[in-house]
Amino acid sequence: MYKIPVIPGDGIGPEIINEGRKVIEAVAEVEGFDVEWIPYDIGADRYLKSGQLISEDELKELGQYKAIYLGSLGDPRVEPGILELGILLKLRFYFDQYVNLRPIKLLEGVWTPIKDKGPEEIDFVVVRENTEDFYIGIGDRFKGRNSKVQLELLRELYQVRFDLDIETSSEEIAYQIGVISKEGAERVIDYAFSLAARKGMERVTGVDKANVLSQMYGLWRDVFLDVAARYPSIETEFNFVDATTMWFVKNPEWYRVVVAPNLFGDIITDLGAMIQGGLGLAPGGNINPDGTSMFEPIHGSAPKYAGKNVVNPIATIWAGAMLIEQLGEVRAAERIITGIKDVLKEGKVRTYDLGGNSKTSEVGDEIVRKILGGVN
Ligand code: IPM
Ligand code: MN
Question: Which residues are in the Isopropylmalate dehydrogenase-like domain (predicted)?
Fold first, then answer.
């Protein structure tokens, strides 16, 4: 018996999460375990009514479970950043979900915009650091006299770095800093290497921008090399993030496990989602291996499609597979992935983003049918 808290969230969240639940219930039946869902009404509606984002009590309660199932957050009635920071990032940080695991895998029958590449070539995983870097976001905006004071403080640092004088008369300035800690880098890089070792993947690529942000990513590289030394049979390399975006398109087959700091990991996984067939097919897991993890599609709440039963639920269903794998139900997770693969390969039931006109719920139903039909 697994108790799983579920946050359907905003926009299309409730529709896609319904399909995910349906599919997990189907594999639970096949594998002989029970699931009890514990719904949480966290999101824009409640925020607009009561001003509550997520309460300390809710966080404490959620902390009793191994894995949370999340739909999507975001609403045009709420200023950008409020729900993201107050709910999504709050959950990731509160539960110290330091790994954001994002498989980039093109499944058979799915179109990729990359010419001459197929499922053989597009099959890797991005391990995104999920609690540090520029997501710390400490900083401020300074106007008028305050701006001048801040610039005076920065002048000397700037001079040491560039041997140039900084302009000190700006009307308004802003800065936000990023932080990489040795421990923070170590745990996520080690996760990437141990994943590679466990899955027999021969290479780990570290992503950074150490040629410019040499302090933060210099530390990141030092830690990477220390960790790599513990895994002598795994090949390693560094990629600058700009070059990574180029290589993801040109030679995706090169990659196995890619480990990236938070912000670069965010950016390259949207690109990854595109090459695997679109955001409708891209799942993610926010993982704390010793605590409470959280699984979600990497796309947003797509408000303009909300309530229409047309969006692709596969990213969420796939995230559900990652969730039950995290709970230890590896065979059940495999059954979900096989169900997704069968439906995509057959190509009869697919949503508009994949060139079809099936409904959200029809995709979930069809995956359930494959799962139940595949039992013998
Ligand atoms: C993601 C999203 C979030 C992020 C936003 C919504 C805060 O883009 O999960 O990739 O930047 O991590
Ligand atoms: Mn993102």
Answer: 3-367
In the beta sheet, which residues pair with residue 204? 236, 257
Q: 294, 326 in Cβ contact below 8 A?
A: no
Q: Which atom of ligand 1 is nearest to the CA of 100?
A: 9
d(CA 239, CA 266): 16
Residue 72 CA to ligand 2 center (angstroms) comes to: 12
Q: Which CATH number fits domain 1-105+283-376: 3.60.20.30, 3.40.718.10, 3.40.50.970, 2.60.40.10?
A: 3.40.718.10
Tell me if 319 sits within 8 A of 302, measured CB to CB. no
Q: How far is the CA of 328 from the centre of ligand 2 (A)?
A: 27
Ligand nearest to the CA of 270: 2
Pick the atom of ligand 1 nearest to 300's CA. Answer: 6
pLDDT tens, position by position, 50-67: 999 999 999 999 999 999
Q: Decide: 88 in ligand 1 pocket, CB within 6 A.
A: yes
214-260 pLDDT, tens digit per residue, is 999 999 999 999 999 999 999 999 999 999 999 999 999 999 999 99
CA torsion, points 146, 152, 155, 156, in degrees to nearest 10?
-130
Q: Counting ligands in written order, which one lies closest to the CA of residue 88?
A: 1
The phi, psi pair for 76, rounded to 5°, reads -65, -20
Pocket of ligand 1 contains residue 84 by CB under 6 Å:
yes
